[in-house]
Here is the input.
Amino acid sequence: MRRVAITGVGAMSALGLDHPAMKAALAAGRPAIGPIEGDVAQLAGPKAAGQVRGFDPLAHFEERRLSTLDRVSQFAVVTAREALAASGLVAEPSRTAVVIGTGAGGLVTIDESYKRLYADKNQRPHPFSVPKLMVSAAASQVSMDLGLTGPAFVLSSACSSANHALGEALWLIRSGRADAALAGGTEAPLTNGTLRGWDALRVMAPDTCRPFSKGRKGMILGEGAAVFVLEEWEAAKRRGANILAELAGYGLSADAADLVAPSQAGAEAAIRGAIADAGLGLSDIGYINAHGTGTPLNDPTESAAIRAIFGASTDRLPVSSTKSMHGHALGAAGALELVAALLALTDGVIPPTANFLEPDPACPLDVVPNEPRRAEVRAALSNSFAFGGLNAVLALRKA
Here is the structure.
């Protein structure tokens, strides 16, 4: 099968407005969860989030075009542009795919439309409401912005969306259906309705996210996007590309058990699948970026799955959750976390699990508490386990 190289990254999150800024914050172990700013802060139940601050859409788009772009698509286009520029790829339009993951699409537009209809008593929504809010909009906007005419689609599988998108882009290139891809995830869920919906589930922390820590109180929502340029390995080498790492494996599974409670068996199946698909051994894995939501149910289940696979060597395996720094970006989570996993391979820096208080006996892992760690990492995993039991794990190999 054809190997797949990662040659460019674009990213935007609470940790920074571009990939270098986000990478620097991860490497410093600097969390960016804080009080929600803007109009929604006065309305929503939760008061803290991993919010993208200082983003000015007019710095990236003409005002006229913004009438067709929800915040979720703005994030996707800006990070895709950054990734393509960083890669130096002159894309062949018909041979370049666009695969984006998002959990819910244009939530800002949905919230604004309901306000317009039911609070303001205006019987006509904005004329571009549907093309702005449709879940596929982000892929369409990226393909149009960059002039890419190859396969283009959105994958939506809740919090595994980005990992599924990256995994399917991997297979498009492996199979020869595309030679390159812009793939990743985007999410902009910090609206009154979305925040209140999550609060109603009673899984939200009041202040910050403390994955794997005793006394953790739940998750914190985040927003942002990350997009990666994937290329067929030999083609990337021929053009002299700076290959950051190999996207080497993709494991996926369904729990088929519960809508919200995670399954150890499902998590194990996806992790084992990614390792096998990459042709790696257990001893090759030097870091795992965990799903690590900070909820009472997820963290012990994920810990048990990792320990069941790696056995006694689990004690020497760094496992951290960067949701503690940028929040849980739902459909974009796997893409933001792949930035962190990539950092371990390219820079030898393992980002920490921030806000950690004390070990929880139910989560017996080396969670890299509070401080980043230097390490030589040859291969890494990035876990995503979604509501509905939809699991996707990616494996990276050092270039």
Q: What stands out?
A: The chain has twelve helices and 14 strands. The longest helix spans residues 71-87.
